[in-house]
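Why does this matter for the project? Reviewers at the last site visit asked to see concrete outputs rather than summary tables. In response, this paragraph embeds two records directly. Each consists of the residue sequence and, immediately after it, the corresponding structure tokens. Nothing has been edited or filtered.
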Amino acid sequence: MSYAVLRLRREARDVFLLNHIEALDYALIARHLDLSIADVQARLADALCEISRTVDLIERVRPPSKLSKAENPDVR
């Protein structure tokens, strides 16, 4: 997930990190970045969508893992 966060545009990344790492609420982030609360919400939504897209893409292109019989009971 860190790769997905690093790929974010700076504006979205700043809001995401302040909210998820520093645990600041929208009002504090807005004050800190001189934004409206609506802008903070929009940037956070953009960040979460982009992170989700990046993680989904990584999961789709990742080669299948080799599971043991114990991990995958359908393997005979």
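We now turn to the second protein, recorded in exactly the same manner.
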Amino acid sequence: MSGPDAHLATTSGRLEFRPILALLLCGHVAACCISLSYAAAAFSGIVGFDKANVPIAMLRTLPFAVVSIVFAISRFSFGYFAGFYFYTMIFGYLWLIEFSLLPYNHALAIVSIFASALAFLAPALLITSPVRARLDLSVSAFDLLLSAILIFAAILIAVAAFYNFRLVGLSEIYRFREQIAFPAPLRYAIGITSNALLPFAFAGFALGGSIWRAGIVLVLMLLLYPVTLSKLALFAPLWLLFLAFLCRMVEARSTVILSLLLPTTVGLATLFLAKAELFPIEWAAQYFSVVNTRMVAMPSIALEVYNNYFSTHPLTHFCQINVLKLVIDCPYDEPLSILMRVYNQGAFNASLFATEGIASVGPWMAPLSAFGCGLVIAIGNRLSSGLPPQFIVLSGGILPQVLLNVPLSTTLLTNGAGVLFLLWYVTPRSIFERSSPHS
């Protein structure tokens, strides 16, 4: 560990204000406002951008923009990583709500989501102390674990390929994806492997200097795309490489902020260049659609539609969790993602703020639900305490993207967050001591 990494190892354990982080956060807020204004066109009938409302939107988001200062002073943790992505989502919602075309109690929704954000961030950012008892693997056992993950992933992909393997473009994946029917155990194994096991192995190999084996991990991740026809599976290898590059250039907190700021800014740049006929409009539109619209704006839009839908429909009281559906009555026979089809955006899931919050308990109780979810993320903080920030960023690099679009309960079980927390717990801290005495 050298350069910014070594500096981080000596500073991330205490609270300190960093002006460079504050500047990055200001740039991020500005980029989000501009990006969302253009992305609004993709959600006709839900929001309608009007330049006349921009000053009001700026005033409405200003108090929440000030909240971003917590990311300039907080120490790094997994909660910092996830919390910043949620902060961006909620900021986007507060910006877009001024252009909302859907009827519901907007004032209540604003107060609720603001309080929910604070309730989540408090434990997610502040609870970082290590657990008292830790069960570390030996160095040789850890290396064996990483190799076992590779073998397991290869076998899993081979088995899954018997059920589905199609090389199709992004525009065609929705036509075929609904036809995929994996057995439940295989479906769970794919989610855990793609979102937790393989990123964990990549982090272990990359920071341990096993570049070839890290490359094999990326190939395996890419092979999951024709199996699952998921955009996340297609872009996950590039995403991890992007995070690895940032980790080498800057400290972990800057990495987290830049991981959203840079892609968003590139999308805006390509859009402006295309309008000036200096860049192919087709390429600019495709990039902006995938990154600025789908990755950044869509989770914010989900808060808008969930607020509208559950203002006139019964709450779920958490019955969307399959286990609870067995013991409590549920007003819905279909998953929430299917119910959201009425907004002409296809089937889509949403984050914990929409599902465990708005849909389950309504806007009045949503902050309490968010606080509970923040405590869950804090468990991840405690179990990963003592690991290098770069290792947490790389091994947990896919989960913040998942958390923006999937309920926390699903992320923990189906998408492997719970497994990753356990892997962090047993990872031997001694393997990183060879790189830096401060790690």
